[in-house]
Amino acid sequence: MHPSGPIAAFEGVSVQYGSVTALDDVTLEIERGEIIGIVGESGAGKSTMLNLLDAATHPTEGRVVIDGTDPQRLSGREIRLLRRRIGMIFQRFNLLGNRTARQNVALPLKLQRTQDPALVAELLDYVGLADRADHYPAQLSGGQQQRVAIARALVTRPGLLLADEPTSSLDTRATEDVLELLAATRRDFGATVVLVTHELDSVAAIADRAAVLEGGVLRSVFPVVRSAARGERDSYLAHAQRVLGA
Ligand SMILES: Nc1ncnc2c1ncn2[C@@H]1O[C@H](COP(=O)(O)OP(=O)(O)OP(=O)(O)O)[C@@H](O)[C@H]1O
Q1: Which CATH superfamily is domain 1-85+161-246 in?
Q2: What are the ABC transporter domain coordinates in residue numbering (predicted)?
Q3: Average pLDDT of 126-133?
Q4: Angstrom distance (rounded) from CA 7 to CA 48
Q5: What is the pLDDT of residues 23-44, one digit of tens each?
Q6: Per-domain boundaries in the chain
């Protein structure tokens, strides 16, 4: 990716689906190397923003610039090349059920007609699943599946990692693991992370900035303040007591 300037920018972006305005004149720069949380209630336009960042859709009005280029000006082949530098993880993990963890992680390379078994093994080790490499998704917990999905997203060494509700199907402990891993991903791989979620706690845990969407309008963007409790890893009991006020 290019070394300077924002990694992505929304410039007066609106997206219209028939009579529904999914995004309304959104302007936002995403800085290289930051973790930014995009938060908002259901229907606020979060997924629409991610799809634009993945060059999967284009705005009705305005412009999205990804790593210095407007995908709308690229050919299909150029868009495919751009998308190789963008990793994505999903709420439901989206692993192939008939492939092992190792084969799932290797898949993006296979699609590019290359292979790198050492890198695949290294990434499975990085996400703490070296001993589960030959397990199928159904043999893994949700948190483990999401970690496989993160390894798969990292195998092409993306500069931009897009996370769409990555912890919404996970329990507290698995959520903490996945969030820690996303923070480590920024540190160890230099990736910019865009975390879309309705869970404010997740953003508070790892993001540098939060962008708040309401009804397709970007209401505010502000730095996230770390809470004192952050960084401590509760026992499940301590967590339950804290949340339930026992
Ligand atoms: N392909 C589409 N066709 C028609 N309307 C759509 C389409 N995609 C999204 N919308 C509408 O655009 C608005 C924003 O949707 P979006 O999925 O971006 O919200 P969201 O914040 O991600 O919501 P959720 O948290 O429920 O996923 C919603 O009103 C939605 O119904």
Answers
A1: P-loop containing nucleotide triphosphate hydrolases (3.40.50.300)
A2: 8-240
A3: 97
A4: 18
A5: 999 999 999 999 999 999 999 9
A6: 1-85+161-246, 88-157
